[in-house]
Amino acid sequence: MKNVPLKGVIAYPITPFDALEKVDIPLFKKQVERLVVSGSDAIAPLGSTGVLPYLSDEEKEAVAEAAIQQVAGRVPTLLGVSNLTTERTVYHARFAEAAGATALMIIPMSYWKLSDEEIFRHYDKVAAAVSIPIMAYNNPATSGIDMSPALLRRLLQIPNVTMIKESTGDIQRMHLLRKTLGEEVAFYNGSNPLALAAFAAGASGWCTAAPNLIPELNNALYKAVLSGDLDKSRQVFYRQSELLQFIVAKGLPRAVQAGLNLLGEEGGYLRSPLMPLTAQEISELERILSLVHSPAPLDQSFIS
Amino acid sequence: MKNVPLKGVIAYPITPFDALEKVDIPLFKKQVERLVVSGSDAIAPLGSTGVLPYLSDEEKEAVAEAAIQQVAGRVPTLLGVSNLTTERTVYHARFAEAAGATALMIIPMSYWKLSDEEIFRHYDKVAAAVSIPIMAYNNPATSGIDMSPALLRRLLQIPNVTMIKESTGDIQRMHLLRKTLGEEVAFYNGSNPLALAAFAAGASGWCTAAPNLIPELNNALYKAVLSGDLDKSRQVFYRQSELLQFIVAKGLPRAVQAGLNLLGEEGGYLRSPLMPLTAQEISELERILSLVHSPAPLDQSFIS
Amino acid sequence: MKNVPLKGVIAYPITPFDALEKVDIPLFKKQVERLVVSGSDAIAPLGSTGVLPYLSDEEKEAVAEAAIQQVAGRVPTLLGVSNLTTERTVYHARFAEAAGATALMIIPMSYWKLSDEEIFRHYDKVAAAVSIPIMAYNNPATSGIDMSPALLRRLLQIPNVTMIKESTGDIQRMHLLRKTLGEEVAFYNGSNPLALAAFAAGASGWCTAAPNLIPELNNALYKAVLSGDLDKSRQVFYRQSELLQFIVAKGLPRAVQAGLNLLGEEGGYLRSPLMPLTAQEISELERILSLVHSPAPLDQSFIS
Amino acid sequence: MKNVPLKGVIAYPITPFDALEKVDIPLFKKQVERLVVSGSDAIAPLGSTGVLPYLSDEEKEAVAEAAIQQVAGRVPTLLGVSNLTTERTVYHARFAEAAGATALMIIPMSYWKLSDEEIFRHYDKVAAAVSIPIMAYNNPATSGIDMSPALLRRLLQIPNVTMIKESTGDIQRMHLLRKTLGEEVAFYNGSNPLALAAFAAGASGWCTAAPNLIPELNNALYKAVLSGDLDKSRQVFYRQSELLQFIVAKGLPRAVQAGLNLLGEEGGYLRSPLMPLTAQEISELERILSLVHSPAPLDQSFIS
User: Fold this and answer.
1) Which of A29, A113, B152, C186 shows its CA 20 to 30 Å from the CA of C93?
2) With the CA atoms of D150, D151, D157 and D159 taken in that order, what torsion angle do they form, in degrees rounded to the nearest 10?
């Protein structure tokens, strides 16, 4: 695999706001720092978790620069630059490259369903505008488009489209991807509840917001998988599976914000119309977090 | 029904672009004029057909002003002001009211799925910022959210939310809406292929891009329905049903642009990543349009 | 339309059981008699409502003979003879023809999904074994197979396959059917909640279990449609729409049995695993039936 | 886990027919023998693969007796006794127990959707009629009912319902099952393409028709999983994944029959309406089988 700078646990920070719903850059930097020092293999700002589509162009630029400055090259930075129009996607891709991003993540956002040809041209124009590698991201639940394995294979013909992130939540799709794209193509899992199954299927990495709350368990799963130990992988996965399902069910930005507060960290504010979890949901999250963190301690060899 | 200024055929213009993908305001005005003079009961710019989400704030304002200026009060103007964030939706709602819009159309756009409470607060804040009536628009295929009849009923408690536009494409939903909301609540059909069934079910109006291409048939259907004539309604509907299915299947902005060109009007350009219909699709549209326009002439009493 | 002996309200009796879960033929005959004298345009035993798949071969034969004997030619009899295997379907088709059925209804039951070719051959073999006309019935919710309009058109090439019953619950499908099959082909609506929309779309008849409970309203809807009066059709439809939705939601045999008991008729027993409606469901049905039957009397001109 | 007599690769024979579409018992016995001697951990006749619903009562009994006689206790025998009515299910369950079956597999067949209460009573009555353990089988694609984890947990309260077979094809469901039912409950995977992911998730066994064609690879996967070796499990899985997808996509009885013929074994005939694979499908299967069987030989340590 050439031009593939990412593997392992790729951590997605939220974008925190202040009480007036302005982006809170200082808090964002603190949250990014926690992700780096807790052992994430890469940092991925301005994804769905980072509420990219809710930000103005200026805000996106400020977040991008703050992230790259804070990460400071300790791990790779994967920057989300998706936009409905091709022109704006090119604009943000160029900005990200100039700011020092390691790679770009692009989902084909759509209001009107795009044809395969429209999607291919979109990626092709953006990719031609930059030199760094691009991760094509398939997530029909948020984008409204389900890119077929055949289309993804076509996208990989674009020289710097080198990585695939798959979030349909269907493990059979990953099997098909690997069969269609070949073993040497790097694919990444973006569906938290599939973390074990995707690694078993051969995923190179796991794109996840969970390290905001339980980095040690996320990293332990990857380590167990790397060591090829199926039983330990399963044990570590089931320790975190309930939390993974919860944060997906409630929406990642809302769940991470609430979880940070429960852990004694600052979660900041959300931007309307997004609202905080309800009191009942927060209690449920507290229960899940306490189970994850406290009881039967994980075999220390997994946590390193 | 009070504060319900709309009924009949509510025509949706596209937003045309020039060769450099800039909004083409003079062409837009010509297209709006065609919709008015061909007998539409209202004009609705900046909807899905008008590629609202692909426009910058400045472009939205220019389109809104141009539309209101061109319509010049001859029929009501329904302006789309939907946005992912509440703050931007309020901003555009105020702009539209100041510019002279008759009413506002708002769909709860979402990237992260919104809870009922989040949706209610969103509408409540926007409605409180203006005095003109609001049409709440349900279209899960584009917004990613399916507002239940129960939620729509709740939205109608907000004083100036007075109209419901329903686009799930399921006629049973309209029956349920009417049962849930009561006979006196105005609901509008936004699913072109359901035009006949929705009018049969009691819809007050039909939100449609079809008048860009076949205004006489669209108006004739409404007239037949108004006269309570089921057989004539059916006859007029089947004359246009294939075109209605085509423009929905291909995407309204793309299909309308191609159709305008086929009719000898100017369709303008699309904004990337949207691409023109393929040659084969254009041939198919030409065939359908020729069938609609030429052969067995409609009973003249329907076209007036 | 030749060889099309059915139109209007086609009434589906249940198959009642006694306390030991044996088929109760005397009660079945009483229920059939009610359907005939209340004005149904045809009687259709051994459909889904008649729990065909839950009966032994001997029971099916007894029910078929009892129905034809009781109807005694006053209206046409449409007999269900569907079976998983072709051999058994042929067997029951021949039995039904010999017993005097007017026409046969056949759904392509499946455990394993059938290909179009398998379905065509199945109908072809059965049709070749009898001389009476056959109604091909599409209902993916119960059969597990969704027959496309293209396949249905192919089935109509078999000489005595002359009628289509469509129960997907999607009105757009009926529009497509009419466009695909041509105006002269008889299609029937098997989805109760679509009764108004399907008649508006041009359906020749309505296959329904509702006449077991509200025959006067079912007949009034057909009469209003025949007279081409859209407003009256709508009024009559909304009088019965809640009941139509209820009996579909709860399962036709269970809902009809409970409703007959509420109306002071004998509903008989169900065969396990089917169980009676719960007390709460029965109360709900009672409320709906009382609304349908009592208040604002229908304009008498519709009830005849 | 008590009263759980099954684990590993549970092999499903087809039910072969002769040229006149009669059940071919001698050929069936040969096919069962192949499954036993090739190393299957259990034999499961009269499942979906064995076209249970297409057989008469007498045929089911003949197949059950032949299977038990042929297996002769070398491995456990899991017998399918599902039926639409409770009475017939009880009948076949008693027959199977008397004939010597080790355990019973029961799917809640449905024509009319069953409520949770109806399903529970159904299992409860059948289980009370026998003493051997029962596997509750969830497969909405064939049964039309999706049993929730909560319902499955309730079924496990019935003393001799001790095993769960899950075939929704969604790996997240298995995670939820294990969380809902507890680690000590035996669950089995019935979705061939999920074989690796289900074992990774902790499934006790794999219910599969694949051993009719590739027993050595199926057994090798289970062995690799048992040894806890993730990399070897993945390697062995991807060797067979294309075949697993093919046999599911084409229907297990049709695909197995064709595959047996390609392998030089006797596949027998199918019962109408099921038809043999097309020539093109057979070529495709031949290609897949040749890839599976010939090239890069598997590391011998997996095949034993």
Assistant:
1) C186
2) -140
Residue D228 with chain A: CB contacts under 8 Å: 229-231
Task: Calculate the average pLDDT of chain D.
Answer: 94
Residue D241's nearest CA partner among A152, A169, A188, A174 is: A174
Mutate which: A106, A107, A112, A122, vs B, most B CBs within 10 A = A112
C-alpha distances out from residue C256 to C193, D111, D293, Å: 16, 16, 57
Contact across the interface for C230 and B233, Cβ inside 8 Å: yes
**Token pair 């040659």: residue:** B279
**Shortest Cα distance from D259 to chain C (angstroms)?**
18
Residue C72, token pair as written in the block: 């005694």
- Is the pLDDT confidence value at A109 over 90? no
Q: How far is D18 from chain C (nearest CA, A)?
A: 14
Among chain B residues, the shortest Cα distance to C168 is held by B170
In chain A, the largest separation of any two C-alpha atoms, in whole Å, equals 52
Helix, coil or strand: residue D65? helix
Most D-contacting residue of A168, A175, A187, A248 (CB-CB within 10 A), to test interface: A175
Look at residue A142 and tell me whether its pLDDT is greater than 90.
Answer: no
The pTM assigned to this predicted structure is: 0.94
CB B105 within 8 A of CB B80: yes
Q: Give residue-wise pLDDT tens across range D63-88.
A: 999 999 999 999 999 999 999 999 99
| Distance (Å, whole) CA B146 – CA B128 | 23
Domains detected in chain A: 8-303 (3.20.20.70)
The shortest CB-CB distance from C229 to any of B176, B197, B230 is to B230
Burial (CB count within 10 angstroms: exposed 0-12, middle 13-18, buried 19+), residue D237 = buried
Cβ A172–D169 below 8 Å, yes or no?
A: yes
Collect all residues from B whose CB is shorter than 8 A from any CB in C: 169-172, 175-176, 178-179, 193-194, 196-197, 200-202, 225, 228-231, 233-234, 238, 241-242, 245
**C-alpha of C66 from chain center:** 18
ipTM of the complex: 0.93
Strand runs labelled E in chain D: 8-11, 42-43, 78-80, 103-106, 134-138, 161-166, 186-189, 205-208
* Nearest Cα residue in chain B from A121: B273
Nearest CA in chain A to B111: A142
Amino acid at C80: G
Other beta carbons less than 10 A from residue C283's beta carbon: 12
Number of cross-chain residue pairs from B and C with Cβ atoms under 8 Å apart: 69
Distance of CA A127 to the CA centre of its chain: 20
**Which residues, at least 6 apart from B22, have a Cβ–Cβ distance to it below 8 Å?**
none
Burial environment of residue D181 by CB neighbours within 10 A (0 to 12, 13 to 18, 19 or more): middle
